[in-house]
Each structure stands twice: as structure tokens, then as C-alpha cells.
Design a protein that fits this description.
Aspartate Aminotransferase, domain 2; 2 domains; 17% strand; globular
Length: 395
């Protein structure tokens, strides 16, 4: 690993194989993968439908330039359109590329219909929209932008969940409002009631596009194919990636036909929508876009959330946030790192965000018994952590 640039804080685990919700290393250790590549391995590891689809497609055609028709690309785009409120799909390779496409689309649409003054993008504190310059600038976290300035102009930030603040910033100059329906990297933050509805109204009033970043919440993660479908608020543009390919790199931007402002020569992607990635997306959608499957995701999410809430009730200031199988357990800066280390030692992989919150995003195919296994580990971790600081326990 010496030749690999050190851009990640690695945890000393080196998986070489996986099956279902489990990862294995060369020494025979096994780990319950309760983060799933950060909400990416939606069907777990080694899912036969996904493996078969990728193998069969690799034997036929891995890549074909978008200069030519790619039949499976059209088929998958139609699957997404039929399953959502959108008409057009642009395929790329990652979440940040999908966000870049959405930013360009919003500005091109505004420029064409209103002129160059309407170009601002409004985003929110604690957001995360990717690491490219557009996505990074949209990400309202100064610590992530430090050292990379100057950031591109035309972005303004409002506090997440503060509709009054958003009203002050959205106006005739606004091309789009970009928001995560549930913030993932920011701590699994759920917006307050009425916030998304208010943003929808603001965008309608000012002829701005409402863009939902569903890179983390999409592809069944919240128990709906896309989280917006459980909110009653329909955005104009949606970005998707991560779990959409089940681990195969893919991104997508979905929009309604009247907003599809990107035309030949204005945007593109060499690998976007290649046959291999499309075969993966098709396999994932055929499994996930099923009401019985999504209902089971919601059920398992309810079990997990309710049990974690009982655990949180034992710790002053602790909180549980999220929907479906995207859950955050906020234990604060004293206990969260200890519980995280306990989980690591016990072979249950979660993610520590901001030093305070354990993020859980297991495969959507995780079994109920695996959820209970993870919960036993979390309880053990909280018990051990509280024992070192008994003053923090609720009597």
C-alpha cells in the first residue's frame, strides 16, 4: 500500500472476499458489514443476480462510446423513468459527477429561460455533495474546502432545516436549490416537518429548480426507491449513485423533460452509461424496485431504529436519526468513539461521523437476525463505554 496516496484514514482491515452481509480477510476473520461500502453494496456481497448480470455483460460488451446507441442504456433509463416522476436520465460514473451534471443543467436552464443573472445555487450547512469543484463548493462545510480555494462563485449557503433563512436567500437570482432529503455525511440529519415542502414552494415562486441529492438515500435505502417518494415532495432534478450499481461505479441525474437543458456538446461522459454499469443497475433495480422488498427494508429499519432509540434513552443527549436502513446513532464526542472501537473489535463495521455519530447503512438484503446481532454489539459497546463514565448513564 506504500504506493497508494494517503487520502483515507484506513482502519487496518483488509477484506479479500464477501458473501451477503459479511466480509472476510485472508486470515479468516469475518466482519458484519453494517456500512455496505457507505450505502453502496445495496445487495450485499456476491448477490447472484448482480454477479450473473455483470459476468454475462462482460462477456458480450464492457464499453461502447456514447457516440453510438447503447440499447441497455435506453432500457435502464426507461426503468428509472417508469419508477419515478422523471422523464430523462443522464448517466455518469459517481455521485459527485451526477451533482455536477445537475448544477450545469440548472444553470443552463436558467440561462436559456432567464439570462445570465439567474445563476445562484442555494445549498445547506452540513451538506455533502462530492469532492469535485462544483460538488465541493456546493458542500457547505468550510473544513472540506480549506486549502482548495478559491471556490467557484455563485453558491450561497443556508442553515439546514431553517426555512426562514432559505426564504432570505432564494430570489430572482436563484437557479436551483440543492438539498439532501436526509443528510448522510453531515450526521444522518432529517429535515424538520415542512422544510422540504417549503423549499418546493420557494422554487415554484422564483422559477428555480429543486434538486434532491439522493446519492446516499436512493436505490431503496430509506425503504422507498427514492426518498422523495416518502416525503410527498417531488423535486425537478434528482441525483443518484452509490447503491444504484450495487458496488459497480455508476451515477445518474434524473429530470423532467421540460428541464432537460443539456444538449449535444454541452455535457457528456466517456464511461457514463456503459454496458457493464447498465447491466449492474438493471440487476439492482429488478431486485430493489419491488414493493415487497422495499416493505421489508422499512420493517428492518423500524426494528433497528426502535431498538437504537431504547439504547439512546440510556445516554443523556443521545439521539437516533434516519429512515429505513440509513440510521445515525448520536452518542456525543465522549461515548461515540469508544462504541465505534468496540464494534470494530467485535467485527461489526459501522462509520463514525464527526466524532459523535455512528452511521449504519447495511446492505438492503441484511437479514433480521443480522440486525439483531448488530444490535447486541451496539448494546455491548454502550454498556462498556458507559461503565467508564457512569455519570453519563440515565438512572
Amino acid at each position: 500500500m506504500e504506493a497508494v496516496m494517503k487520502t483515507y484514514k484506513r482502519l487496518g482491515i483488509a477484506p479479500t472476499g464477501g458473501r451477503g452481509s459479511w466480509l472476510f480477510d485472508e486470515e479468516g476473520n469475518r466482519y458484519l458489514d453494517f456500512i455496505a461500502g457507505i450505502a453502496t453494496n445495496s445487495l450485499g456481497h456476491g448477490h447472484q443476480a448482480l454477479v450473473k448480470a455483470v459476468q454475462e455483460q462482460a462477456e458480450k460488451l464492457i464499453h461502447c462510446s456514447n457516440l453510438y446507441e447503447i440499447p441497455i442504456q435506453g432500457e435502464v433509463a426507461q426503468m428509472l423513468a417508469d419508477a419515478t416522476d422523471f422523464d430523462k436520465v443522464f448517466f455518469c460514473n459517481s455521485g459527485t459527477e451526477a451533482v455536477e451534471a445537475a448544477i450545469k443543467l440548472a444553470r443552463k436552464h436558467a440561462y436559456t429561460n432567464h439570462g445570465p443573472k439567474k445563476h445562484e445555487i442555494v445549498t445547506f450547512s452540513k451538506s455533502f455533495h462530492g469532492r469535485t469543484y462544483g460538488g465541493l463548493t456546493a458542500t457547505a462545510q468550510p473544513k472540506l474546502q480549506e486549502g482548495f480555494g478559491p471556490m467557484p462563485a455563485g453558491f450561497v449557503y443556508a442553515p439546514f432545516g431553517d426555512l426562514d433563512a432559505a426564504k432570505e436567500m432564494v430570489g430572482s437570482q436563484t437557479a436551483a436549490v440543492l438539498v439532501e432529503p436526509i443528510q448522510g455525511e453531515g450526521g444522518v440529519n432529517v429535515p424538520p416537518d415542512g422544510f422540504l415542502e417549503g423549499l418546493r414552494q420557494l422554487c415554484d415562486e422564483h422559477e428555480a429548480l429543486l434538486v434532491f441529492d439522493e446519492v446516499q438515500t436512493g436505490a431503496g435505502r430509506t425503504g422507498h426507491l427514492y426518498a422523495y417518494q416518502g416525503t410527498g415532495v417531488v423535486p425537478d432534478v434528482l441525483t443518484s449513485a452509490k447503491g444504484l450499481g450495487g458496488g459497480v461505479p455508476v451515477g445518474a441525474m434524473l429530470t423532467k423533460e421540460k428541464y432537460a437543458a443539456l444538449t449535444p456538446g454541452t455535457h457528456g461522459s466517456t464511461f457514463g452509461g456503459n454496458p457493464l454499469a447498465m447491466a449492474a443497475v438493471k440487476a439492482v433495480l429488478e431486485v430493489v424496485n419491488d414493493e415487497n422488498f422495499l416493505e421489508e427494508v422499512r420493517f428492518k429499519g423500524t426494528i433497528l431504529k426502535n431498538a437504537l432509540q431504547k439504547l439512546a434513552d440510556r445516554v443523556p443527549g443521545a439521539a437516533v436519526r434516519g429512515e429505513g436502513l440509513l440510521i445515525g446513532l448520536d452518542l456525543g464526542p465522549e461515548l461515540a468513539p469508544q462504541v465505534f472501537e468496540h464494534c470494530l473489535e467485535e467485527g461489526v463495521l459501522v462509520n463514525l461521523i464527526g466524532g459523535t455519530t455512528l452511521r449504519m447503512a447495511p446492505p438492503l438484503t441484511v437479514t433480521r437476525s443480522e440486525v439483531r446481532y448488530a444490535l447486541d454489539t451496539f448494546r455491548g459497546g454502550v454498556d462498556a463505554a458507559v461503565s467508564t463514565q457512569p455519570e453519563m448513564a440515565v438512572a
